[in-house]
User: Fold this.
Amino acid sequence: MAGADLERLRAAVLADPALQARLLAVPERAGFVAAAVDVGAELGLAVRPADVEAALAAARRSWLERWV
Amino acid sequence: MGLTPAFAAADWTPMLVRAGDGEPVVEWCHTAGVAFDEPFFDQTLERCLRHPFRLLFRQETTLAELEARAVAAPGITPSGFLLHVSRCGSTLAAAMLATLPSTLVLSEPSPLDAVLRHGRAGPVKAMLAALGQPRTDRHRHLVVKLDAWALLSLPVLRAAFPAVPLVVVHRDPVEVAVSQVRRRGWHAVPGALPPALLGLGPTDPFTLPPDDYVAAVLGALYRAAAAAVRDGALPVDYRDLPAAVPDAVAPRFGISCAAGERRAMLAAATRDAKNPVLAFEEDTDVKQQLASGALREAVDRWARPAYDDLRAAASAATAGAPRP
Assistant:
């Protein structure tokens, strides 16, 4: 499932400074989304651009709603 | 979730605490190489989160893991806490102290506010250990400017840090109220703070006229401020800024300033602390003139007695202070 593979991607990146550095090197959103999908593919994960975009939107909301 | 080998204390900073499945979760933002230059801590986090990596990839820990990390990475021992009644020059004081190369200043970090309001001393100590990691090799002092409503959490703060010096910045409540009515802080929004914490009945926040509610919140802050001063906190009047920062606040916090550092602190006072691109403008007279009769009545009813008590406590503290 897409959600599970995104969580696996998240866990893999958070455990690997080299993957963190690779994704930190792409500040522009479209390029970052593509890079995240590529990293996922290299790890054998089916992460789509829409999954990454949705996760970014959810993360933004959680930050904005921290006072609620 | 949990600690991983890649989770170095120096590279990640707590950014928020949220409700998890059964227990709170601390989320951490990747902040390696980021200078916390903005007037407020959360503004720097906001800048960090513009990078999609930092927005999407956040470490997560429990509060227990946060406390375990504090043992391994205790951070800088706090030199002092800046408490305040809001809109009273506290941001200016923090900005001035932040010019000192020796001093890491954290201004209203929301993750610390979250654990303070959660009410347990252990997570408060641990959160400040995580936030108070030195960011340069010259950092040896840590000053935290807290949110105004932290005055109402003083028992928890004191339980966590019984010996850290406190400074309370205050100002005439009419001038603070004018600012709050114009642009309400979170704490001045009805329902944000528990009414009982303000000495109000459960429906008062929603039935009191808006000016009265603002004044009632200020009354609660001033009562807590007076108690803190009686307990040894140093009172600083807005009218004594900016000189009080190098001359009274820094010494109270055990921070010495060379002559050049003092000049740099006073130079910072010429800028608007919340918006440093602007020059500082003294606005006591303007604020007094802007106060409506209704607002003055509300302040007199809800906040003036507590302010008078704070000023009495401040006078007593000054009278009892050892002569130089």
